[in-house]
Amino acid sequence: MKKEIVKTLDGSKTLFVPELDETYHSTHGALQESLHVFIREGLQFRSELKEVSILEVGFGTGLNALLSFIETDNTNIKIEYTSLEAFPLEWEIVEQLNYMDLVHFEKYADPFKKMHTCDWESFSEISSGFSLRKLKVKLQEVPFENEFDLIYFDAFAPRVQPDLWTEQIFASMYKALKPGGVLVTYCAKGTVKRALKAVGFELQSIPGPPGKREMSRAIK
Predict the structure, then answer these.
(1) What separation in angstroms does the CA of 185 have from each of 141, 156, 218?
(2) Phi and psi dihedrals of 131, rounded to 5?
(3) For 82-93, how does the pLDDT look when each residue is reduced to its tens digit (9 = 90+)?
(4) What is the separation, in whole angstroms, between the first and last Cα of the chain?
(5) Is the pTM of this model over 0.70?
(6) How far, in Å, CA of 50 to CA of 94, rounded?
(7) pLDDT at position 104 over 90
(8) Do residues 25 and 186 make contact, with C-beta atoms less than 8 angstroms apart?
(9) Phi and psi angles of residue 63, each rounded to the nearest 5 degrees, phi first
(10) Among 171, 163, 118, which Cα is nearest to 144's?
(11) How far is CA 120 from CA 19, 52, 156, 162, in A?
């Protein structure tokens, strides 16, 4: 599918897929959205942990992985990061985004490239505090059980991929989490919240990033 680079309102860039009429991040701010939903309300919410196992649904441009990596550089946490991506982007596309031009991001250029160019299907050490495993697999095929402390659920919106926001999918996400584990997503659609509750999650509706009134945090 064709992809176009677009600038979001906070100055950071994302990709637009005309065929789906969908962007990889919020047009109100790609960086702001990732920081708010996944770092502040996800990773930092689990600040009691010094070693965190993360599952990301949708590696995409790698922005969430990059911001999580930066957290290990700024704190003493260690992250084991597993990311699912059925349709990986080529590095030649990703390197045209302006993440490295953002404040204080220049020094992360090499780790960010390594995230995109390292081998798939096994863990690669990006730094002493961050290891990454990219899996080219569809979400419906996820086999995990009691493995993760935190899930970044960053699939395309339900309008675009409704089959990824069902009770069946969230049941597999519930199973993948350790007791007390947390799932965060930008989506606060009623059908999604009902599906999360139906499989056993304790749901928290919290303020969303710029441009969204709410987001969802679900606790096992």
Answers:
(1) 20, 11, 9
(2) -120, 145
(3) 999 989 999 999
(4) 36
(5) yes
(6) 30
(7) no
(8) no
(9) -65, -45
(10) 171
(11) 27, 20, 22, 27
